[in-house]
Amino acid sequence: MKFLYNIGRYFAMLGKVFSKPEKTRLYIRQLFYEIESLGIDSVGIIIVLSLFVGGIMTIQYAYSMSNPIYPVELIGLGTRDTLLLEFSSTIMALIMAGKIGSNITSEIGSMKVTEQIDSLEIMGVNSASYLILPKIIAVVFIFPFLYVLSVFFGLIGGLITGPAVGVITMPDYISGIIWLFEPYYVTFSIIKSLFFGFIIASVPAYFGYYVQGGALEVGKASTKAVVNTNILILLTDLILTRLLLT
Fold first, then answer.
1. What is the overall mean pLDDT for the chain?
2. Which residue range(s) make up the domain with 27?
Protein backbone atom coordinates (compact mmCIF):
# COMPACT_ATOMS: atom_id res chain seq x y z
CA MET A 1 0.00 0.00 0.00
CA LYS A 2 2.84 2.39 0.77
CA PHE A 3 4.20 1.79 -2.73
CA LEU A 4 0.87 2.80 -4.30
CA TYR A 5 0.63 5.75 -1.91
CA ASN A 6 4.04 7.03 -3.03
CA ILE A 7 3.14 6.62 -6.69
CA GLY A 8 -0.08 8.57 -6.22
CA ARG A 9 1.65 11.31 -4.27
CA TYR A 10 4.43 11.49 -6.89
CA PHE A 11 1.94 12.10 -9.71
CA ALA A 12 0.02 14.56 -7.54
CA MET A 13 3.27 16.47 -7.05
CA LEU A 14 3.86 16.45 -10.83
CA GLY A 15 0.38 17.93 -11.25
CA LYS A 16 1.44 20.86 -9.05
CA VAL A 17 4.83 21.10 -10.78
CA PHE A 18 3.37 21.48 -14.27
CA SER A 19 0.63 23.92 -13.31
CA LYS A 20 0.87 27.41 -14.79
CA PRO A 21 3.72 29.41 -13.21
CA GLU A 22 2.93 32.77 -11.63
CA LYS A 23 5.89 34.77 -12.98
CA THR A 24 7.48 33.38 -16.13
CA ARG A 25 10.47 35.73 -15.94
CA LEU A 26 11.40 34.40 -12.51
CA TYR A 27 11.21 30.81 -13.76
CA ILE A 28 13.44 31.56 -16.75
CA ARG A 29 16.09 33.08 -14.49
CA GLN A 30 15.92 30.02 -12.24
CA LEU A 31 16.10 27.71 -15.27
CA PHE A 32 19.44 29.15 -16.42
CA TYR A 33 20.78 28.80 -12.89
CA GLU A 34 19.75 25.12 -12.79
CA ILE A 35 21.26 24.43 -16.21
CA GLU A 36 24.57 25.72 -14.92
CA SER A 37 24.50 24.06 -11.50
CA LEU A 38 23.06 20.68 -12.55
CA GLY A 39 24.31 20.38 -16.13
CA ILE A 40 27.36 22.45 -16.93
CA ASP A 41 29.00 21.66 -13.59
CA SER A 42 28.74 17.96 -14.50
CA VAL A 43 30.71 18.32 -17.74
CA GLY A 44 34.07 17.73 -16.04
CA ILE A 45 33.16 14.38 -14.50
CA ILE A 46 31.50 13.28 -17.76
CA ILE A 47 34.69 13.98 -19.72
CA VAL A 48 37.00 12.25 -17.24
CA LEU A 49 34.83 9.13 -16.89
CA SER A 50 34.26 8.83 -20.63
CA LEU A 51 37.96 9.13 -21.46
CA PHE A 52 38.90 6.37 -19.03
CA VAL A 53 36.00 4.06 -19.93
CA GLY A 54 36.62 4.50 -23.67
CA GLY A 55 40.24 3.50 -23.16
CA ILE A 56 39.34 0.54 -20.94
CA MET A 57 36.73 -0.78 -23.38
CA THR A 58 39.18 -0.51 -26.28
CA ILE A 59 41.77 -2.61 -24.45
CA GLN A 60 39.18 -5.18 -23.36
CA TYR A 61 37.73 -5.53 -26.86
CA ALA A 62 41.24 -5.88 -28.27
CA TYR A 63 42.07 -8.79 -25.96
CA SER A 64 38.69 -10.51 -26.34
CA MET A 65 38.99 -10.31 -30.14
CA SER A 66 42.65 -11.25 -30.44
CA ASN A 67 41.73 -14.25 -32.61
CA PRO A 68 43.11 -13.59 -36.14
CA ILE A 69 39.82 -14.60 -37.76
CA TYR A 70 38.17 -11.45 -36.35
CA PRO A 71 38.63 -8.19 -38.28
CA VAL A 72 40.64 -5.70 -36.23
CA GLU A 73 37.98 -3.07 -36.98
CA LEU A 74 35.67 -4.84 -34.54
CA ILE A 75 37.59 -3.20 -31.70
CA GLY A 76 36.57 0.31 -32.74
CA LEU A 77 33.09 -0.86 -33.68
CA GLY A 78 32.55 -2.54 -30.30
CA THR A 79 33.76 0.51 -28.39
CA ARG A 80 31.58 2.81 -30.49
CA ASP A 81 28.39 0.77 -30.17
CA THR A 82 28.84 0.20 -26.43
CA LEU A 83 29.24 3.94 -25.89
CA LEU A 84 26.31 4.77 -28.17
CA LEU A 85 23.85 2.21 -26.82
CA GLU A 86 24.58 1.82 -23.13
CA PHE A 87 27.47 3.55 -21.42
CA SER A 88 26.95 7.15 -22.51
CA SER A 89 23.20 6.96 -21.88
CA THR A 90 22.33 4.38 -19.23
CA ILE A 91 25.54 3.99 -17.23
CA MET A 92 26.20 7.72 -17.29
CA ALA A 93 22.62 8.31 -16.12
CA LEU A 94 23.21 5.98 -13.17
CA ILE A 95 26.32 7.96 -12.26
CA MET A 96 24.54 11.28 -12.65
CA ALA A 97 21.69 10.00 -10.48
CA GLY A 98 24.15 9.92 -7.61
CA LYS A 99 25.58 13.35 -8.33
CA ILE A 100 22.54 15.32 -9.50
CA GLY A 101 19.85 13.34 -7.68
CA SER A 102 21.40 13.59 -4.23
CA ASN A 103 22.03 17.29 -4.83
CA ILE A 104 18.36 17.90 -5.68
CA THR A 105 17.06 15.88 -2.73
CA SER A 106 19.34 17.54 -0.20
CA GLU A 107 18.61 21.05 -1.52
CA ILE A 108 14.82 20.68 -1.52
CA GLY A 109 14.83 18.55 1.65
CA SER A 110 16.83 21.19 3.53
CA MET A 111 14.31 23.82 2.48
CA LYS A 112 11.50 21.54 3.64
CA VAL A 113 12.86 20.83 7.13
CA THR A 114 13.75 24.51 7.66
CA GLU A 115 10.16 25.46 6.68
CA GLN A 116 11.23 27.59 3.72
CA ILE A 117 8.78 25.68 1.50
CA ASP A 118 5.98 26.42 3.96
CA SER A 119 6.91 30.10 3.80
CA LEU A 120 6.63 30.05 0.00
CA GLU A 121 3.18 28.46 0.24
CA ILE A 122 2.05 31.09 2.77
CA MET A 123 3.16 33.83 0.33
CA GLY A 124 0.98 32.24 -2.35
CA VAL A 125 3.84 30.76 -4.38
CA ASN A 126 3.41 27.34 -5.97
CA SER A 127 6.47 25.89 -4.25
CA ALA A 128 6.46 22.62 -6.19
CA SER A 129 6.45 24.40 -9.53
CA TYR A 130 8.94 27.08 -8.50
CA LEU A 131 11.49 24.67 -7.00
CA ILE A 132 11.11 21.56 -9.17
CA LEU A 133 9.99 22.62 -12.66
CA PRO A 134 13.24 24.49 -13.55
CA LYS A 135 15.27 21.49 -12.36
CA ILE A 136 13.29 19.06 -14.53
CA ILE A 137 13.51 21.25 -17.62
CA ALA A 138 17.22 21.92 -17.05
CA VAL A 139 18.18 18.25 -16.64
CA VAL A 140 16.01 17.05 -19.54
CA PHE A 141 17.46 19.81 -21.74
CA ILE A 142 21.11 19.22 -20.84
CA PHE A 143 21.17 15.40 -20.81
CA PRO A 144 21.29 14.87 -24.61
CA PHE A 145 24.27 17.24 -24.77
CA LEU A 146 26.00 15.33 -21.96
CA TYR A 147 25.31 12.10 -23.86
CA VAL A 148 26.92 13.42 -27.06
CA LEU A 149 29.85 14.73 -25.03
CA SER A 150 30.29 11.35 -23.35
CA VAL A 151 30.30 9.46 -26.67
CA PHE A 152 32.81 11.87 -28.19
CA PHE A 153 35.30 11.73 -25.32
CA GLY A 154 34.81 7.98 -24.91
CA LEU A 155 35.88 7.51 -28.52
CA ILE A 156 38.78 9.91 -27.97
CA GLY A 157 39.81 7.86 -24.92
CA GLY A 158 39.92 4.73 -27.08
CA LEU A 159 41.76 6.57 -29.84
CA ILE A 160 44.46 7.63 -27.37
CA THR A 161 44.72 4.44 -25.32
CA GLY A 162 44.52 1.81 -28.09
CA PRO A 163 47.57 2.96 -30.07
CA ALA A 164 49.39 3.97 -26.86
CA VAL A 165 49.33 0.42 -25.44
CA GLY A 166 49.81 -1.17 -28.86
CA VAL A 167 46.55 -3.11 -29.16
CA ILE A 168 45.38 -1.33 -32.32
CA THR A 169 46.64 1.25 -34.75
CA MET A 170 44.97 4.62 -35.09
CA PRO A 171 43.80 4.05 -38.73
CA ASP A 172 42.27 0.66 -37.80
CA TYR A 173 40.50 2.18 -34.80
CA ILE A 174 39.06 5.02 -36.88
CA SER A 175 37.98 2.53 -39.56
CA GLY A 176 36.17 0.52 -36.88
CA ILE A 177 34.34 3.62 -35.63
CA ILE A 178 33.07 4.33 -39.16
CA TRP A 179 32.39 0.71 -40.10
CA LEU A 180 28.69 -0.33 -40.16
CA PHE A 181 27.59 2.81 -38.34
CA GLU A 182 23.86 2.82 -37.52
CA PRO A 183 22.56 6.42 -37.04
CA TYR A 184 19.40 5.14 -35.32
CA TYR A 185 21.53 4.14 -32.31
CA VAL A 186 22.12 7.83 -31.63
CA THR A 187 18.42 8.65 -31.94
CA PHE A 188 17.52 5.74 -29.67
CA SER A 189 19.95 6.80 -26.94
CA ILE A 190 18.95 10.47 -27.10
CA ILE A 191 15.33 9.40 -26.55
CA LYS A 192 16.51 7.36 -23.56
CA SER A 193 18.50 10.29 -22.19
CA LEU A 194 15.38 12.48 -22.23
CA PHE A 195 13.49 9.94 -20.13
CA PHE A 196 16.46 9.47 -17.82
CA GLY A 197 16.80 13.21 -17.34
CA PHE A 198 13.16 13.46 -16.29
CA ILE A 199 13.54 10.61 -13.80
CA ILE A 200 16.79 11.95 -12.35
CA ALA A 201 15.22 15.36 -11.70
CA SER A 202 11.69 14.44 -10.61
CA VAL A 203 12.19 11.38 -8.38
CA PRO A 204 14.85 12.95 -6.08
CA ALA A 205 12.74 16.13 -6.00
CA TYR A 206 9.81 14.05 -4.76
CA PHE A 207 11.84 12.56 -1.91
CA GLY A 208 13.16 15.97 -0.93
CA TYR A 209 9.80 17.73 -1.19
CA TYR A 210 8.05 15.33 1.19
CA VAL A 211 10.86 14.67 3.66
CA GLN A 212 9.97 15.08 7.33
CA GLY A 213 12.26 15.52 10.32
CA GLY A 214 15.73 17.01 10.38
CA ALA A 215 19.15 16.69 8.79
CA LEU A 216 19.31 12.95 9.41
CA GLU A 217 16.07 12.37 7.53
CA VAL A 218 17.34 14.51 4.64
CA GLY A 219 20.39 12.25 4.38
CA LYS A 220 18.20 9.13 4.42
CA ALA A 221 15.92 10.66 1.79
CA SER A 222 18.94 11.33 -0.46
CA THR A 223 19.96 7.68 -0.21
CA LYS A 224 16.43 6.48 -0.99
CA ALA A 225 16.21 8.91 -3.89
CA VAL A 226 19.41 7.63 -5.52
CA VAL A 227 18.45 3.96 -5.06
CA ASN A 228 14.93 4.41 -6.44
CA THR A 229 16.15 6.59 -9.29
CA ASN A 230 18.67 3.94 -10.36
CA ILE A 231 15.99 1.23 -10.28
CA LEU A 232 13.64 3.36 -12.40
CA ILE A 233 16.44 4.16 -14.87
CA LEU A 234 17.15 0.45 -15.40
CA LEU A 235 13.43 -0.37 -15.67
CA THR A 236 12.92 2.44 -18.21
CA ASP A 237 16.00 1.28 -20.13
CA LEU A 238 14.55 -2.23 -20.35
CA ILE A 239 11.16 -0.98 -21.56
CA LEU A 240 12.57 1.47 -24.12
CA THR A 241 15.04 -1.07 -25.43
CA ARG A 242 12.21 -3.55 -25.95
CA LEU A 243 10.01 -0.95 -27.64
CA LEU A 244 12.56 0.87 -29.77
CA LEU A 245 15.07 -1.81 -30.76
CA THR A 246 12.72 -4.49 -32.06
1. 87
2. 2-244
